[in-house]
Write a structure and sequence with these properties.
Largest sheet: 3 strands, mixed
Order of helices and strands: HEEHHEEEHHHHHHHHH
Number of strands: 5
Distance between the termini: 44 Å
Organism: Kushneria sinocarnis
Pfam families: Peptidase_M48
Protein name: Peptidase M48-like protein
Structural class: mainly alpha
Cofactor: Zn(2+)
Shape: globular
Number of helices: 12
Strand content: 5-15%
InterPro entries: Mito/Outer_Membr_Metalloprot (IPR051156), Peptidase_M48 (IPR001915)
Bound molecules: zinc ion
Strand order of the largest sheet: 3-5-4
Length: 265
């Protein structure tokens, strides 16, 4: 994507706004926004969600938090947000997501589709991987440039900075809630598998989880968060090709006494 947008980037560079980044899996990414801008948007989106949903309590909240915290404790050092906040909410839709700034949201409905702690860790690992890989910045940047490309050119050619900042600000506001691209989904699958394995969860469980997700969305509308996800078959093939690496990671974690034991209510 960076290469295709080179012309626009060249125009943005004098303003210090054009930037290419590299994802944890080595993919070249477009990143126009400051981390702080996205973190602020993430915080606002989280507050909004928390303000309009009832919090889950007791065993449900303990269980989901136990899984998320087990992964958070073993995240690679210096990667992503310094602190994470985990919110578990009473909502039957099988939804979970993570936001820039370090917010993890898990709906109680997700616990029906994720049948055990390892399956739930698959979901949480996947969502946190989107944040660690800076996918929101990439998605927002791409969207802003492709949708308002003309506006950006005009802004740069004309009065410059202030106008451009307004344009990018508008992009960031809707950008963090955009669906992820298929490439990003595949990247989050692989990276997420690594994250849950590092915490000592069983990576094999990811295969069943995505089967369950597929079934859960079979008869009804697909869950919003899964709507752009790769097909079940593609996803399972990709996971299988990374399985032996993930199993080795999980074995090392267990040797280091990482054996999560989150009690499903
Ligand atoms: Zn995803």
């Amino acid at each position: 994507m960076c290469r295709r947008l080179t012309i626009l980037l060249v125009m943005l560079l004098p303003l210090g706004l054009g930037a290419c980044a590299t994802s944890p899996l080595g993919r070249s990414q477009l990143a126009l926004f400051d981390d702080s801008q996205l973190q602020q948007q993430g915080a606002e989106a989280y507050q909004q969600y928390a303000g309009s949903h009832e919090r889950a309590t007791g065993a449900t909240a303990d269980y989901a938090s136990c899984v998320a915290n087990a992964i958070i404790r073993e995240l690679p050092q210096g990667d992503g947000p310094e602190q994470w906040q985990v919110g578990v909410f009473k909502d039957d839709s099988p939804n979970a997501f993570a936001l820039p700034g370090g917010y993890v949201v898990i709906n109680s409905g997700m616990l029906k589709v994720a049948e055990n702690q390892d399956q739930l860790a698959t979901v949480v690992g996947h969502e946190m991987a989107h944040v660690l890989a800076d996918h929101a910045n990439e998605r927002t940047s791409t969207q802003t440039l492709t949708q308002s490309g003309l506006g950006v050119i005009q802004a740069v050619a004309g009065s410059g900075g202030e106008q451009l900042a307004t344009l990018l600000g508008a992009g960031a506001q809707y950008g963090i809630l955009l669906p992820y691209s298929r490439k990003q989904e595949s990247e989050a699958d692989v990276l997420g598998l690594r994250l849950m394995a590092r915490a000592g969860f069983n990576p094999e469980a990811s295969l069943q989880l995505w089967q369950n997700m597929s079934q859960a969305s079979g008869s009804n509308e697909p869950p919003a968060w899964a709507s752009t996800h790769p097909s079940n078959g593609q996803r399972i093939n990709a996971l299988e090709s990374h399985m032996s690496e993930a199993q080795q990671t999980a074995a090392r974690a267990r040797e280091a006494s990482l054996r999560p034991d989150c009690q499903r209510p």
